[in-house]
Amino acid sequence: QVQLVESGGGLVQPGGSLRLSCAASGSLFKRNNMAWFRQAPGERRELVATFTTSGSTNYIDSVKGRFTISRDNATNTMYLRMTMLKPEDTAVYYCNTVWRDYSWGQGTRVTVSS
Fold first, then answer.
1. With the C-alpha atoms ordered 50, 74, 6, 85, is the resulting torsion angle positive or negative?
2. End-to-end C-alpha distance for the chain, whole angstroms
3. Backbone angles phi, psi at 30, to 5 degrees
């Protein structure tokens, strides 16, 4: 059973930075197109960034130029580097395959507030 474990969230001021981590069992990242998602209070979960098996990345418009998705196949870890954070980035962040194939982890909460 694949387990997804997100970490690295916290409280940060607007303009600050965080790096989120996603740890997964097995060789999940090598075999799947992966993604970071987020769910803000009262909102639906949305896809934020993707990292394909071929190494290409994609982002939603609102985070382009500020967020960077990356992965380390050797350690089965995926990252989301977030810079120039805005209050509207406040959400619980999750990782999964692009097609949401696996059970969601507990997520990691990011709060951007002064």
1. negative
2. 40
3. -70, -30
